[in-house]
Amino acid sequence: MARPFEIRRHARIPLSLVLLGLLAWGVAVEPVAVAQIFSRPGTSTSEPKPPRRETTPNRKKQETVRRRRPAKSEAPPPQPERASFADPIEYCAYYQDVDAPDNAYTGDRNPSWVRQAASGASAGAADTLFWRCASGRVIACLGPEDAQQDGGRCARATQPDDADIRGFIAANWIDVTSYDARFTKGDVAGQYLGARKGLASGEAYDEDDYLVQMTITGGAVNDIVGEATYARPGPDGAAAQTVCTSQLRLVAVSDSAISLNQESPKSAKTPCRASRQLVLQPVGATARLQSFEVRRGKRNLKMETWLY
Questions:
Q1: Is 261 among the domain residues?
Q2: Which residues, other chains included, contact 213 with Cβ-Cβ below 8 Å and sequence gap of 6+?
Q3: What total of structural domains would you count in the chain?
């Protein structure tokens, strides 16, 4: 009968042999694997741990200084060039409201057509021309050199009731836009065009009181260029009663006025009689209308009024 296997005898392996075996095995495998075996669970030795963030007051001060450091100075972006115009009409249409022409206006500071249009406001040839833009329109005033100083003719109004939308004395500034040649229709200049009305008083003339409304649409000499309607004012604010309406034929044109013949049926009542000749003279934004009766080559003034 064989002897049982004795574990104790065979288990007596010298410690030196165990250590020598482990050393040989460690050389054969990768160092990282060995380090993972003997490291703690959940930790890794393949990547170094990030350094701890400093929280000292000195570091906080450095961060504050770094945040407050000004950025590098950069040249400001170039400003877009302002549109420039040599024509007052185009300048005002673009900039709308300008109290005095600035460097965006490159044309004549004393346009002849603006002066001619403004001269109807009882100003002398030696007066200084002032012009500006209001709501896209060319507005002009003639006066002495100091006219725009306080209290001057072309200055800002001291009373609100006298001021226009820009604060200037409204009565002394004239809208001259339509006086420019580009607004001419046929032989009729722009300052004559449009609808106007006024009250003709009969006290100094042979006519009764009439409400006059005149509309000029433009055209060539010898053409019908508009019409005139006359009405009697109603009593105590009642509606006016139309008397007659006549067609207007253009017969003559000058630098300061146009002449018109009335054309109505022969049975037309006063003041629409065909024998009447009308003279329309623009004065700033208004116009003076005179009605003459022509007999035997002579003209007799029958009516005069201001139209607005």
A1: yes
A2: 195, 196, 197, 228, 229, 231
A3: 2
